[in-house]
């Protein structure tokens, strides 16, 4: 502030001689278009405030800001954009004022609040034109009109100059906004000031994003988006799409929680509607993001997850990833989610309602999956059964039919059919070779399913058949009769089906799907058909014997074999130790025991042996394979068979050496049982004598005697009986004392039985 020491007092006035102020000097210079001199004065004052060592009050700071803003707008008016941006920044101009001259970049920003703080003197000198384009046009008219024809707007030279000046203006604006962001970080604005200046920050960041996108400054754009920012998403969406900055758009969507729009961006890139090198794996990004949504708020995002999972399951995209998302989005039951206690009387009804809802949900998803990609339905059914333990009969029936259809489809492939037929024939012949007389004492032969799993090369067809066998064995909720009819219908059209059903005496050939039929017969309770199928059509006597001795749960493929197969076969880890749903078997309904089934197996072996003997062209004295199997069965399970029944069943023409071991063991067991009974009987008698001997004296001392009256002569009335009776004390142990020792018993009699 200026001071004066000389005052001139007049009649009607008061005058003083004072030096000119800094503001008046700058304004005078600007009026004369001496901009550089005004800048020098402002810089001199600035240096004085910074380095002069004097105390600077707020008024002096605002005065300097006013001067720089006046200089900046003067340069802006004269299209000196680079200098204008520098001076306006030094004057700490509100960025919204400068952005207002760029309507294409401003958009709808700042229209809700049209008033900002501004110096009155600066407001009087700001350009009156509404946009920077108008300022450039006015400047061209002022400098070049009427020297350019036809006019400054249509002349080619001014059009190029106008374009250059517009680029310079945008470069100035970009530099100005960059400095504003840098000053914001360096000043470390407090939370309160951040709330106050949030509108200005939003304008700065949003316009910068537009400028970076249009000028293809991708690195600067990513750097801004990965820092703390206040970008208004609705303002930059269209600009980022027009410029192809899809990765930047996805970053903004992810930052603002626009999950649906984010997934749509990745979907268009997956379908190649859009391309962006900065998004190399859109499917992976989509799967990762949806997985995070499921983990954060599963119920809230279940619908969006299912929508995009089904979208991914289309064949041209990534069905496997879509299936993983779909199974992870399946909402748990209300009981598991809530964890609240319920009244006992309501538990059953609530559980039934939850099961109905879950079943309805599964059916709806299955319908939608079939519409999108029918080939993935089997995998989803497998997830429902193995992972969730769904026990809905409809789902089990559908999965069983899908498995069988898959196996039958593979059989249509000539190579697969030839391989499976060769495996069946090889096992059948090897089982016959293993029943030679020299192998009677060998170990139990390998079951067919183990042979198939260990010798067949890994392939989708192999895994499909093993899965089918495992499911047919472990599930009891499908209709075995329907699947059996389907298999028999297919086999009937082949040469092997016709040969197996004919009455010719040719040598029997193994069925290619004989093991599947045996499992189905076991589910139907047809035990005789099971054994006949295993022995006659598969040649798997080991599985037939295990089926007869497995107890209540009759299984063609025991749990131990299933576990071994799943551990050794790639891609079957989910089937390890899996008990899907076991229904009531035919064995329980019929009430057959191990002894009854073993006797049935013996009869089947006898029938098959007779058939093979008729079909065989060899000598009649040659042992047939099933004769050897009968001998092995008698040796391993003879304890469960009656020797008399066996002797009556086996033809008299069979060699005696096949039965010698069984008969000898049976006689030895019978003799052992007899001798064991005699030993137990004698030991019991000896124990009884010892107890009687030790307790007699004690009982005698305690007065344990028997008193009986001896009737006298005459008189039948009660008085005469009581009067004539004589009390006699009888010692019940006297016989023990007078009797001789009991005869000795030979517990090991000789051959004559003495």
TrEMBL record:
Q: Where do Low complexity bias regions lie?
A: 736-754
Q: Which residues form the Vacuolar sorting protein 39/Transforming growth factor beta receptor-associated domain?
A: 204-297
Q: Which residues cross the membrane?
A: none
Q: Which InterPro entries match?
A: Vam6/VPS39/TRAP1, VPS39/TGF_beta_rcpt-assoc_1
Superkingdom of origin: Eukaryota
Q: Where is the composition biased (Polar residues)?
A: 328-337
| Region Disordered, residue ranges | 323-355, 735-754
A cellular component term from Gene Ontology for this protein is: membrane
The biological process GO terms on file are: autophagy; endosomal vesicle fusion
Name under which the protein is recorded = Vacuolar sorting protein 39/Transforming growth factor beta receptor-associated domain-containing protein
Native source species: Rhodocollybia butyracea
């Amino acid at each position: 502030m200026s001071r004066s020491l000389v005052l001139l007092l007049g009649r009607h006035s008061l005058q003083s001689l004072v030096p000119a102020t800094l503001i008046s000097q700058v304004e005078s210079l600007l009026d004369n278009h001496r901009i550089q001199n005004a800048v020098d004065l402002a810089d001199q004052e600035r240096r004085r405030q910074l380095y002069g060592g004097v105390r600077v009050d707020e008024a002096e700071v605002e005065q300097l800001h006013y001067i720089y803003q006046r200089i900046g707008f003067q340069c802006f008016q004269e299209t000196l954009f680079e200098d204008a941006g520098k001076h306006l920044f030094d004057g700490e101009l509100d960025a919204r004022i400068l952005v207002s001259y760029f309507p294409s970049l401003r958009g709808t920003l700042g229209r809700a609040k049209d008033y900002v703080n501004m110096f009155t003197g600066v407001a009087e000198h700001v350009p009156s034109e509404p946009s920077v384009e108008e300022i450039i046009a006015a400047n061209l008219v002022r400098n070049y009109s009427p020297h350019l024809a036809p006019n400054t707007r249509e002349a080619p030279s001014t059009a190029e100059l106008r374009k250059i000046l517009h680029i310079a203006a945008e470069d100035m604006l970009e530099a100005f906004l960059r400095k504003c962001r840098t000053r914001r970080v360096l000043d470390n604005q407090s939370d309160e000031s951040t709330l106050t200046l949030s509108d200005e920050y939003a304008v700065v960041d949003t316009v910068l994003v537009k400028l970076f996108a249009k000028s293809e400054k991708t690195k600067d754009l990513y750097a801004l988006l990965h820092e703390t920012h206040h970008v208004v998403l609705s303002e930059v969406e269209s600009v980022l799409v027009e410029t192809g900055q899809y990765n930047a758009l996805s970053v903004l969507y992810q930052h603002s929680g626009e999950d649906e729009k984010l997934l749509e961006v990745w979907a268009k890139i997956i379908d190649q509607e859009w391309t962006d090198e900065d998004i190399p794996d859109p499917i992976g990004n989509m799967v990762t993001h949806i997985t995070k949504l499921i983990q954060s708020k599963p119920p809230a995002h279940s619908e969006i997850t299912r929508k995009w999972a089904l979208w991914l399951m289309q064949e041209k995209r990534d069905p496997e990833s879509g299936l993983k998302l779909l199974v992870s989005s399946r909402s748990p039951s209300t009981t598991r989610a809530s964890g609240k206690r319920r009244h006992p009387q309501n538990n059953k009804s609530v559980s039934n309602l939850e099961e109905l809802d879950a079943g309805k949900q599964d059916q709806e998803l299955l319908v939608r999956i079939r519409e999108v990609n029918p080939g993935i339905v089997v995998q989803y059914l497998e997830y429902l059964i193995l992972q969730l333990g769904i026990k809905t009969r409809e789902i089990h029936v559908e999965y069983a039919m899908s498995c069988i259809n898959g196996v039958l489809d593979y059989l249509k492939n000539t190579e697969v059919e030839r391989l499976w037929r060769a495996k069946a024939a090889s096992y059948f012949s090897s089982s016959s070779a293993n029943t030679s007389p020299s192998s009677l004492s060998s170990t139990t032969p390998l079951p067919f399913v183990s042979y198939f799993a260990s010798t067949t090369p890994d392939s989708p067809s192999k895994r499909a058949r093993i899965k089918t066998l495992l499911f047919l064995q472990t599930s009891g909720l499908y209709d075995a009769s329907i699947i059996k009819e389907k298999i028999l219908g297919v086999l009937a059209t082949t040469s092997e089906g016709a040969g197996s059903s004919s009455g010719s005496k040719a040598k029997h050939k193994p069925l290619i799907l004989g093991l599947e039929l045996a499992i189905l017969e076991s589910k139907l309770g047809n035990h005789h058909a099971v054994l006949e199928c295993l022995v006659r059509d598969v040649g798997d006597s080991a599985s037939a014997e295990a089926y007869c001795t497995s107890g209540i749960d009759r299984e063609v493929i025991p749990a131990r074999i299933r576990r071994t197969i799943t551990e050794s076969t790639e891609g079957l880890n989910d089937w390890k130790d899996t008990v899907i749903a076991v229904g009531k078997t035919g064995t329980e309904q019929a009430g057959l025991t191990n002894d009854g089934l073993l006797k049935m197996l013996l009869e089947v072996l006898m029938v098959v042996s007779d058939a093979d003997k008729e079909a065989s062209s060899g000598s009649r004295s040659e042992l047939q394979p099933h004769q050897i199997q009968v001998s092995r069965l008698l040796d391993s399970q003879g304890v469960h068979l009656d020797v008399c029944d066996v002797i009556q069943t086996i033809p008299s023409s069979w060699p005696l050496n096949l039965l010698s071991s069984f008969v000898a063991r049976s006689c030895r067991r019978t003799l052992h049982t007899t001798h064991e009974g005699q030993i137990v009987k004698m030991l019991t008698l000896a124990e009884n004598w010892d107890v009687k001997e030790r307790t007699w004296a004690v009982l005698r001392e305690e007065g344990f005697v028997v008193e009986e009256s001896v009737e006298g002569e005459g008189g039948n009335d009660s008085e005469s009986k009581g009067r004539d009776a004589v009390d006699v004390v009888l010692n019940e142990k006297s016989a023990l004392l007078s009797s001789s020792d009991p005869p000795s018993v030979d517990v090991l009699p000789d051959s004559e039985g003495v």
